[in-house]
Amino acid sequence: MGPAPFNMGEDDDQGWKMVRGRNNKRNDSTQHNMDIATTRDFNKENINTLTTFFLTNFPDSFGARAMFNAFHHYGEVKDVVIPAKRDKGGKRFGFARFDRVVDSREFEHTLDQIIIGRDKISAKIAGENSYAQAVRTGEATIKGAGQKRCVVTYEAEQDDLLRWKKAYVGVVVNPGMTYNIQNAFHSQGYFGVKVTPLGSNLALLEGQEEGEVQALIDDVKDWMDQWFREIRPWSPKDVDVDRVAWLRIYGIP
């Protein structure tokens, strides 16, 4: 569902009510200042059908009702909760619960693209336990929000291992140089060495003939030193974890 225009923080009645700090413990200022906007027809018995999203990076001027108004144009939002406390970084956070979310990952992406004023909000799928903790204590712990560790294994062919054992690995002088070295070799007339970036810092050097890489290291050491601060025989432990990526930044005036 595409974005629709909305008036930031408007007070028109869209079928919800604001609830603030219903707590008998008056010495708990966190609970007293809890900001909640919810629909009138909200039924706690249907809580298992709701999808909860953890929200950050929304404007300081936006309360629960203003956020509810914004989300009203994207899906069937049931309630928005913004605790008075802030996270460890001093930033505000909150939760929004939606009904009838067909694809939670796709909807997460939709919410994560919303721009309010100069701020692009951040939205991640959260568990109901995190939501309940925020309502009770005004704090929330989102462990690895949207982040999962992926372990990939690869078993190389025997022919590839024999080929790589004859190769070298070069550690570049500056990160990112690996992507330009092949062109530099060709411009100098060195066509006998194949350069394959392994990442931002490491490059695999393979000679068309055995001993060609070593000969190049010996003959044009000064030129090679412009690119590499170290060249060593290939090892299975040579794994480059750094990559060069383009970033698209939103909200810059």
Which characteristics define this entry?
six-stranded antiparallel beta sheet; disordered N terminus; 12 strands; single chain; 253 residues; elongated; 23% helix; four-stranded antiparallel beta sheet; alpha+beta; Alpha-Beta Plaits; 2 domains; 8 helices
Commentary on this structure:
This protein is α+β, with helices and mostly antiparallel strands. The chain has two domains: 35-138, RRM (RNA recognition motif) domain (Alpha-Beta Plaits); 158-233, Alpha-Beta Plaits. The chain is 23% helix and 25% strand. The protein contains eight helices and twelve strands. It has helices at 29-32, 64-71, 104-112, 128-137, 158-164, 181-187, 212-219, 221-225, and strands spanning 16-20, 35-39, 50-56, 76-82, 93-99, 115-116, 119-120, 122-126, 168-172, 193-197, 202-207, 228-233. Strands 1-2-4-5-3-8 form a six-stranded antiparallel beta sheet, sandwiched between helices. A hairpin with a 2-residue loop joins strand 6 (115-116) and strand 7 (119-120). The chain is elongated, with a radius of gyration of 28 Å. The two termini are 26 Å apart.
